[in-house]
């Protein structure tokens, strides 16, 4: 994990300037240790446009520098008579925070968010790829499993307002589910890096700090997201892999 102050300050400066992405070099991916790009997808098993978005996320998330996360939401369960098995109220609240902070007037699916950007992106593979390619790489705090907890070590300048430190526990990799009713009846739908729980590790006002949150059980991995307020830009991100100390 990156623990150098210089790249962290670069990421922080980007977040404080409305997170405008900087052009990347001609490289297809950053050098090892150069940081992550976070792609969050709000999706529903009852949404007929979501299978294609889920497929895209599964391909994009295989890149080493992309931290992909999928959140199930339940808006269309009653309308299409198919309950999304992954939906949770915390995921709905996270999407609503992005909507409140950004351009969208209401929640929608599939809703792709890159590095916490609040833009209303109508999904297409071309738009998603362009947003991913244009995104700045986020530096990473030192986050690792220590005993039964995830220890998150942060260091940087004082912030105008404290940042939220979120930890998303997810099932790594792809899994498929056959949808037997609703608008996706008969579709074998892929799900990638499905988020199972959200934990708020605390607030970070800047400076040097260490936060702890319980580690997930089983084979779940975790993502640490340092975010400039509800629905705000991401300042930093780290991946904590299942069964590892980092």
Gap between N and C termini, in Å? 7 Å
Number of domains: 1
**Major β-sheet strand ordering:** 7-6-9-10
**The CATH fourth-level homologous superfamily:** Glutaredoxin
Radius of gyration: 17 Å
| Total number of strands | 10
CATH topology: Glutaredoxin
The mean pLDDT is 87
Number of H- or I-type helical stretches: 5
CATH class: Alpha Beta
Give the biggest beta sheet. 4 strands, antiparallel
What is the H/E string?
A: HEHEHHEHEEEEEEE
Portion in helices: 10-25%
The helix/strand class is alpha+beta
What overall form do the CA principal axes indicate? globular
> What is the correct CATH architecture?
3-Layer(aba) Sandwich
Strand percent estimate: 25-35%
Q: Ranges with pLDDT <50 over ≥5 residues?
A: 1-32
Overview of this protein structure:
This protein is α+β, with helices and mostly antiparallel strands and 246 residues long. The protein has one domain: Glutaredoxin (3-Layer(aba) Sandwich). Helices cover 20% and strands 33% of the residues. The chain has 5 helices and 10 strands; from the N terminus they run αβαβααβαβββββββ. The protein has helices at residues 5-16, 50-60, 77-80, 89-101, 125-134, and strands at residues 37-43, 66-72, 111-114, 142-146, 149-154, 163-178, 188-204, 209-214, 221-227, 234-240. Strands 7-6-9-10 form a 4-stranded antiparallel beta sheet. The model is unreliable at 1-32 (pLDDT under 50).
């Amino acid at each position: 994990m990156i623990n150098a102050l210089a790249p962290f300050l670069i990421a922080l400066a980007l977040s404080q300037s409305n997170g405008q992405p900087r052009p990347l070099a001609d490289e297809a991916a950053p050098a090892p240790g150069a940081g992550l790009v976070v792609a969050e997808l709000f999706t529903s098993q009852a949404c007929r446009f979501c299978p294609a978005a889920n497929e895209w996320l599964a391909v994009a998330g295989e890149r080493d520098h992309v931290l992909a996360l999928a959140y199930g939401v339940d808006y269309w369960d009653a309308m299409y008579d198919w309950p999304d098995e992954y939906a949770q109220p915390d995921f709905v609240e996270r999407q609503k925070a992005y909507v409140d902070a950004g351009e969208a007037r209401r929640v929608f699916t599939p809703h792709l968010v890159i590095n916490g950007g609040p833009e209303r992106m109508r999904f297409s593979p071309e738009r998603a790829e362009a947003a991913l390619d244009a995104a700045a790489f986020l530096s990473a705090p030192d986050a690792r499993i220590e005993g039964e907890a995830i220890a998150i070590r942060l260091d940087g300048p004082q912030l105008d307002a404290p940042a939220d430190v979120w930890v998303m526990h997810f099932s790594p990799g792809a899994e498929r589910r056959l949808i037997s009713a609703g608008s996706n009846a008969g579709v074998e739908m892929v799900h990638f890096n499905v988020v199972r729980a959200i934990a708020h590790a605390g607030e970070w006002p800047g400076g040097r700090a260490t936060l702890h949150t319980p580690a997930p059980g089983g084979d779940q991995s975790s993502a640490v997201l340092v975010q400039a307020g509800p629905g705000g830009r991401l300042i930093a991100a780290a991946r904590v892999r299942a069964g590892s100390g980092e």
